[in-house]
Write a structure and sequence with these properties.
By secondary structure, the protein is of the alpha/beta class. It has 11 helices and 17 strands. It has 3 domains: about 140 residues, Sandwich (Immunoglobulin-like), CATH 2.60.40.3670; about 180 residues, von Willebrand factor, type A domain (Rossmann fold, 3-Layer(aba) Sandwich); about 80 residues. A 6-stranded mixed sheet has the order 3-17-16-11-14-13. A 6-stranded mixed sheet has the order 7-6-5-8-9-10, sandwiched between helices. It starts with a strand and ends in a 15-residue tail after the last helix.
């Protein structure tokens, strides 16, 4: 079952479930895929002004090509902005400095061309203070129409000041609630990918990865390009199922209580597609009784406030009917990919710790789980085959680069992004 609803400016809101029946004899787990697609750009209004805070790690490990390519990428990124936009540049090691305070593009470009090349790699990594300073630069003012984004660039682990990923993710979430989104860019093989992804997830922006310094420019350009194309602001999805336990499988900044889940998606660029995928443990019910899900999308687009509502209903039936009911294979495939992504992230940690057999077992277990309901679906069968081959790779020492690439492939899957980290967009033709 699929239900679609468009907003006045073209925002799309769709909901699909894996099955329509729930069991009377026991609690049923059912899966829901909610899709949000940001509206296209219209010519009615000029795009909102953008305020970018570049926060650059200048710790000792950035010496050489990383800092050189990062400096050039920031200067190139400033050139992407128009005269209505503003930017700031913050540099951090164990100290935090602001080579370019918040300024308009026209007046600040000349200053940036002098100040940014003078940023040199130095000491430790006080990521938290650098990040919060950048957020303070772009977060001021009362104009709610400005798109505010911090781009955090680092090649290492936070080893000075606040280093806890949960605390940093909470800061990012609080900033997003105040209108400041966060994108992150991890460089090379040494950065903490889980920490950088947690910050981006809380901050409602992409977590980019540049394995080599010469990839930094494209990654920063992607972060800026998305900010310039935002058409759906401060998107939230609230899901309600009375008496149910609701679990988010995809990425998103989430708050929950029994029977209700609130997912913050942040700002979405034109035609960008985000999926909210849920596992729902339904309450017990009697034959023919129904239980319903309500999903509400809120945000702002060119037409003003967005408020779209969708529903989904399960009917209770016995095991015989449940066992023969058709499955929505679109939902099955998405859920399977998310199960695989979650398992892969666990396997990466275990492999890094030297627990090779356990890493292999984690991947094999999820492969068996997907195989149990794959039936004759070719895509699911292909996924199972791929996972079994991948399990063998995690059973022995692997290069850190492979771990990083695998982690970011999974993180992009969780965020409804393409393999290279670019936003997935819906073709509206």
């Amino acid at each position: 079952m699929t239900s679609k609803k468009p907003g006045a400016a073209g925002t799309l809101f769709e909901i699909e479930g894996d099955r329509l029946l729930a069991r009377t004899e026991a609690h049923s787990s059912r899966f829901i895929k909610i899709t949000v697609v940001a509206p296209p750009v219209t010519s009615k209004r000029p795009r909102p002004a953008v305020r970018i805070g570049f926060v650059l790690d200048r710790s000792g490990s950035m010496q050489g090509d990383p800092i050189r390519f990062a400096r050039k990428a920031i200067l190139d990124g400033i050139d992407m902005l128009s005269g209505r936009d503003e930017f700031a540049v913050v540099a951090f090691d164990d100290r935090v400095e602001t080579p370019v305070s918040l300024t308009g593009v026209l007046e600040g470009r000349r200053t940036a061309k002098v100040a940014i090349p003078m940023i040199e790699a130095r000491a430790n990594t006080n990521l938290c203070d650098g990040y919060l300073t950048g957020a303070q630069e772009v977060g001021g003012g009362a104009d709610g129409d400005i798109i505010r984004r911090v781009i955090l660039i680092s090649d290492g682990h936070a080893n000075a000041g606040v280093t806890d990923s949960a605390t940093l993710a909470r800061h990012a979430s609080e900033l997003r609630a105040r209108g400041v989104s966060t994108a992150t860019l991890g460089i090379g093989d040494g950065f903490d990918e889980a920490l950088m992804s947690a910050i981006a997830n809380g901050g409602g922006g992409p977590a980019q990865y540049a394995g080599d310094p010469d990839q930094i420019g494209a990654a920063i350009a992607e972060c800026i390009g998305e900010a310039l194309e935002v058409t759906l602001r401060d998107a939230h999805v609230v899901i309600t199922v009375p008496g149910a336990d609701i679990e988010l499988l995809s990425a998103g900044d989430v708050t929950s209580r029994r029977g209700e889940l609130r997912v913050a998606l942040g700002d979405l660029a034109e035609s960008q597609e985000r999926e909210v995928v849920l596992r729902i443990r339904l309450p017990l019910g009697s034959e023919a009784e129904q239980v319903g899900l309500t999903a509400v999308l809120t945000g702002r687009d060119d037409a003003g406030k967005v408020h779209l509502e969708q529903g989904y209903t399960w009917t209770y039936a016995g095991s015989a009917e449940n066992d023969v009911q058709p499955r929505n294979r679109v939902v099955d495939r998405v859920v399977a990919q998310l199960f695989a992504a979650e398992a892969r992230e666990r396997a990466i940690v275990l492999n890094r710790e030297g627990s090779y057999e356990r890493a292999q077992a984690v991947i094999e277990k999820v492969a068996r789980r997907i195989a149990s309901y794959a039936g004759d679906d070719r895509e699911l069968a292909k996924l199972v085959t791929g996972l079994l081959a991948e399990a063998d790779q995690w059973s022995r020492p692997t290069h850190e680069r492979f771990r990083k690439e695998s982690y970011h492939y999974s993180a992009n899957m969780m965020q409804s992004r393409m393999e290279d980290g670019t936003a997935r967009k819906r073709d509206r033709r």
